[in-house]
């Protein structure tokens, strides 16, 4: 655990929801600094929890997806994942659902690897990462009308090079593979 030393929690004086944008809301908080006593305004993106899945096949391939991302206006190479819906029983249930919908793959076991805060400066949500193995295709993808996803099987041994050369650039995917590495070297226990 991180020792926060003398850093204290800020007092929220006023909070107001500014807008609802389907996948997130924006909140404005007026807070008082415990150190200076001055008031400051902060904006928070409120979102649902997310999940990422690293599906690995029996022959050592990662089931990855390529899709167009509007934020960067480019096709990115990622692992399957998505939002944890209100009707998902748990993060692992959401991971199973997202894996099946986006790729048509299932796995015998889903192992929790870690939970990360995507950007705690302005976001309130977390991303849950799971290892899915052995992954096997059981049906076709079940994409919604806003999804255009291509499945790509990538040898697990190629992942570090794809991160190093920028082919994998999504920060949460890089974090997912870091969690996986920690699992492989025994620092994350089942």
Word description of this protein:
This protein has two domains: 11-47; 50-184, Nucleoside Triphosphate Pyrophosphohydrolase, CATH 3.90.79. The chain has a four-stranded mixed sheet with strand order 7-4-9-8. The chain has a three-stranded antiparallel sheet with strand order 1-2-3, with no helix packed on it. Helices cover 17% and strands 43% of the residues. The chain has 190 residues and is of the alpha+beta class. It is built from three helices and ten strands; from the N terminus they run βββββββαβββαα.
CATH topology grouping of the largest domain: Nucleoside Triphosphate Pyrophosphohydrolase
CATH architecture of the largest domain: Alpha-Beta Complex
Shape: globular
Oligomer: single chain
Order of helices and strands: EEEEEEEHEEEHH
Instruction: Assign the CATH class of the largest domain.
Output: Alpha Beta
Q: Helical segment tally?
A: 3
CATH superfamily of the largest domain: Nucleoside Triphosphate Pyrophosphohydrolase
β-sheet strand percentage? 35-45%
Q: How many whole angstroms does the radius of gyration measure? A: 19 Å
Major sheet: arrangement of strands: 7-4-9-8
Low-confidence stretches: none
Helix and strand arrangement:
Blueprint: E1 11-20, E2 24-32, E3 39-47, E4 50-57, E5 61-69, E6 74-78, E7 81-83, H1 91-103, E8 105-116, E9 127-137, E10 150-155, H2 159-164, H3 171-184
Parallel strand pairs: 4-9
Antiparallel strand pairs: 1-2, 2-3, 4-7, 5-6, 5-10, 8-9
């Amino acid at each position: 655990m991180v020792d926060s030393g003398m850093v204290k929690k800020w007092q929220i004086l006023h909070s107001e929801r500014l807008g609802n944008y389907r996948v997130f809301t924006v909140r404005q908080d007026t807070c008082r600094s415990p150190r200076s006593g001055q008031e400051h305004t902060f904006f928070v993106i409120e979102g649902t929890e997310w999940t990422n899945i690293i599906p690995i096949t029996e022959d050592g391939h990662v089931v990855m997806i390529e899709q167009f991302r509007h934020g960067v206006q480019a096709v990115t190479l990622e692992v399957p994942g998505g939002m944890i819906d209100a009707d998902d029983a748990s993060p692992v249930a959401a991971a199973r659902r997202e894996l099946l919908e986006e790729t048509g793959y299932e796995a015998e076991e889903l192992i929790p690897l870690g939970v990360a805060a995507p950007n705690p400066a302005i976001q309130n949500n977390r991303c849950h990462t799971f290892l899915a193995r052995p992954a096997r295709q059981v049906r076709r993808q079940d994409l919604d009308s806003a999804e255009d996803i291509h499945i790509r099987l990538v040898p697990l041994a190629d992942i570090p090079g794809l991160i190093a050369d920028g082919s994998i650039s999504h920060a949460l995917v890089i974090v997912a593979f870091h969690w996986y590495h920690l699992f492989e070297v025994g620092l994350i226990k089942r």
